[in-house]
Q: What sequence folds into this?
């Protein structure tokens, strides 16, 4: 792990891109990230994928944690990932969660969007997944 990785906390942008105003779960997730020692930035309600990607770049985050419950994950999640790549954030880890049917998960994984945790998932498992991806991909030794 790079010296930089040891000296600073993981910065996570938690976002619900698009038209999904159900924020209770994502706020609890943001608290779990914070309680585990991560620095959390919350996008607020109803940001567009474009706003999420730009915020991730502006805030120099390590991770974008996306959550949707409205079925728009196959549109919004890939758009955020494409925009991050276009804006020079191709090393930003993207994880997703919410209501994601099993048949959509391989497609998202192929795009580099991992995690894909649903309601009832263990916060410890989610936090460890984020830590492992950041350590392996963002803070490469």
A:
């Amino acid at each position: 792990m790079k010296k930089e990785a040891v000296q600073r906390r993981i910065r996570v942008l938690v976002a619900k891109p698009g038209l999904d105003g159900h924020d209770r779960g994502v706020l609890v997730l943001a608290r779990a990230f914070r309680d585990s020692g991560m620095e959390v930035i919350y996008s607020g309600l109803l940001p567009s994928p474009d706003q999420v990607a730009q915020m991730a770049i502006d805030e120099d985050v390590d991770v974008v944690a996306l959550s949707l419950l409205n079925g728009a994950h196959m549109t919004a999640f890939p758009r955020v990932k494409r925009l991050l790549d276009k804006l020079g954030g191709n090393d930003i880890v993207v994880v997703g969660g919410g209501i994601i049917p099993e048949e959509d998960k391989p497609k998202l994984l192929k795009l580099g969007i991992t995690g894909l945790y649903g309601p009832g998932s263990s916060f410890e498992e989610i936090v460890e997944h984020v830590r492992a991806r950041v350590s392996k991909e963002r803070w490469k030794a």
Remarks:
- Residues 3-138 form a domain with the Rossmann fold fold (CATH 3.40.50.280).
- Strands lie at 11-15, 39-42, 63-68, 93-98, 113-117.
- The longest strand covers residues 63-68.
- The helical segments are 3-7, 24-35, 49-58, 73-86, 105-110, 123-138.
